[in-house]
Amino acid sequence: MLITDIFRYPVKGLPPDRLKRVSLTVGEGIPSDRRFAIAHGRSDFDFDRPRWTRRNNFLVVAHSPGFAAIRCSFDVDGSSVSLEIGAGDPVTADLTTNEGRRDLAAAVSRYAGASQTGPYVVVEVPGTSLTDSPRQAVSILNKSSLGDLERRVGQPIDPRRFRGNLWIDEAPAWAELDWVGGAIQIGGATLEVVERIERCAATSANPETGDQDLSVPRLLKDLYGHVDFGVLAEVTAGGLVAPGDDVRRL
């Protein structure tokens, strides 16, 4: 088994940033993964005492599928983002500044959808990844599982729908779901697999068009009897991880 791809999502809800390597740290997720999120007008996020908050308080693909089709790139630490908005000039925003945060919120507002109204505010919780789970963990997805799902559905399924951190290959299909409660070594790091990932409507959004054109949760439930795809793992021994590194159960 080996690692094929590494991704982070510096802004929750926006497309990923591919990494050539990553240094994992005990008790933390991928550096700068979901560092920022965009709170909407009905959010319960506490701006005075920021802390991890459930995903429904932010603009997310499940409720704003158009986000899946936004094109963007990030700088080396994920704090500056450049977005391609339609046929206009790219928008570049430094998210360490109030001006940059306002620029990003304004740029993506057209994709937010009626269910998540403004005003929109870019937020962060220092030292915390604003993932869907309060665990500071890394998501691991299996290309063999995706291939099995594609064969049973009878069509290709873009892996970007699943918004994962680490993709592995050469493992048996769905083997990762049985790793919960055990440990794995990936490159120079050791991780404890802590839970399966239940999939939501975010996976139904087409990354090319932003349309909800395929109900992945329903397909998983009909074909496998569950809605799980991938697992979460917590780093218990830090180290460097890169594509091509071996993955080994301990």
Can you walk me through this structure?
The radius of gyration is 18 Å and the shape is globular. By secondary structure, it is α+β, with helices and mostly antiparallel strands. It has helices at 98-108, 143-153, 216-224; strands at 2-8, 17-18, 22-24, 36-39, 71-74, 80-84, 91-94, 121-124, 138-142, 166-169, 183-186, 189-198, 228-237, 239-241, 247-249. The two termini are 13 Å apart. The protein is built from 3 helices and 15 strands.
How is this fold's topology laid out?
Elements: E1 2-8, E2 17-18, E3 22-24, E4 36-39, E5 71-74, E6 80-84, E7 91-94, H1 98-108, E8 121-124, E9 138-142, H2 143-153, E10 166-169, E11 183-186, E12 189-198, H3 216-224, E13 228-237, E14 239-241, E15 247-249
Parallel strand pairs: 9-10
Antiparallel strand pairs: 1-2, 1-10, 3-14, 4-8, 5-6, 6-7, 9-13, 11-12, 11-15, 12-13
Short description:
Helix content is about 10%, strand content about 30%.
Could you tell me the strand content as a percent range? 25-35%
Strand count, sense and closure of the main sheet? Answer: 8 strands, mixed
Strand order, main sheet: write it out.
Answer: 2-1-10-9-13-12-11-15
Let me know the CATH homologous superfamily of the largest domain: PK beta-barrel domain-like
